[in-house]
Amino acid sequence: MGEELRLPIAADVDVVEARQQGRALAAVAGFSSGEQTVIAAAISEIARNILMYAKKGEIILSLVQNGDRQGVSVVAIDQGPGIPDIERAMQYGYSTSHGVGAGLPGAKRLMDEFEVDSVVGRGTTITMAKWRRAI
Amino acid sequence: MEVPILRQGQYLIASIQSALTDADLSHLREALIAQVGRSRCRGVIVDVTALDVMDSFAVRTLRDITHMARLRGAETVIVGIQPDVAFAMVQLGWTLKGVATVLDLEEGLAFLDGRTKERVVESKPKKPSSRG
């Protein structure tokens, strides 16, 4: 539902752009400014992950609705090397690059829904969403 | 976006003016550490008031700046973490352990004044204190 925002990720300025667009969309969905920052931080992590491992990819942002709850959906798609051991990649403090090992598990902590779909040699798709707390 | 680094007395003040890319953050780290030596300063203040998010890379970079500056003889204090940013950091379990953080620039200067005084006192031979 609604339109989606497709953002190419190929340089570190794109990471900043993606998280700022995500914050703006979260504001439209009615999230508090604290939650907007949380969503922006999660987008920053998965966008950086695209850059680090796949070099390029795409972030798709959209508003979602479930009954009377509003939320923001974030999908990160790349055709990179894929994640050989997802369970390990999701461990806090584990990193195969030079990060702090908090990228994917950090994003998962920040969002309500988080799903990784990855095929080695084909690429990775991360789908995550955050819902507004009922008033 | 380059972060301006100002010198005030014995301290360096890096004032982040906008959202930063990873490359900007790395550049800030290099510039600060180099300048700590060049200007023989004793303290570093990083003002993050304008930083939009504190993600894993930003946290790591601030921690690295603190530890690297300390190895070069300067104390670092982070100032201006916004309430929303603090909210997200706490959800991530990031408390910036081992990194000094205070509310604003004024507090940051006071913090460094205290710290650098401590260092001078530490290096002086102990003598009985006249104060209770």
Task: Describe the protein.
The complex is a heterodimer of chains A (135) and B (132). Chain A is α+β, with helices and mostly antiparallel strands and 135 residues long. Chain A has one domain (4-131): Heat Shock Protein 90 (2-Layer Sandwich), CATH 3.30.565. Chain A is built from four helices and five strands. Chain A has helices spanning 12-28, 33-54, 86-89, 103-110; strands spanning 4-9, 57-66, 69-78, 113-119, 123-131. In chain A, strand 4 and strand 5 form a beta hairpin. The two termini of chain A are 23 Å apart. In chain A, 41% of the residues are buried. By secondary structure, chain B is an alpha/beta fold. Chain B has a single domain (5-123), classed as STAS domain (Transcription Regulator spoIIAA), CATH 3.30.750.24. Chain B is 46% helix and 17% strand. Chain B contains four helices and five strands. Chain B has helices at 22-38, 56-71, 83-91, 105-123, and strands at 5-8, 11-15, 43-47, 75-79, 100-102. Chain B has a five-stranded mixed beta sheet with strand order 1-2-3-4-5, sandwiched between helices. The mean pLDDT of chain B is 90. Chain A binds chain B through residues 12-13, 15-16, 19-20, 23, 33-34, 36-38, 40-41, 44-45, 48, 99-100, 102-103, 106, 109-110, and chain B through 19-23, 52-57, 59-60, 83-85, 87-88, 91-94.
List its salient traits.
heterodimer, A: about 140 residues, alpha+beta, Heat Shock Protein 90, 5-stranded antiparallel beta sheet, about 40% helix, globular, B: about 130 residues, alpha/beta, Transcription Regulator spoIIAA, 5-stranded mixed beta sheet, 4 helices
Distance between the termini of chain A: 23 Å
**Percent in strands of chain B:** 15-25%
User: What's the Cα radius of gyration of chain B?
Assistant: 16 Å
Low-confidence stretches of chain A: none
Structural class of chain A: alpha+beta
Structural class estimated from helices and strands of chain B: alpha/beta
Tally the structural domains of chain A: 1
Helix content of chain B: 40-55%
- Molecular shape of chain B: globular
- The coarse silhouette of chain A is globular
Q: Total number of β-strand segments of chain B?
A: 5
What would you give as the CATH superfamily of chain B?
STAS domain
The chain pair forming the largest interface, with residue counts per chain, is: A-B, 24 and 22 residues
Which strands sit side by side, in order, in the main sheet of chain A? 1-2-3-5-4
| Mean model confidence by pLDDT of chain A | 91
**Major β-sheet of chain B, in short?**
5 strands, mixed
CATH architecture of chain B: 2-Layer Sandwich
Contiguous low-pLDDT stretches of chain B (5 residues minimum) are none
Main beta-sheet annotation of chain A: 5 strands, antiparallel
Described by its quaternary structure, the protein is heterodimer
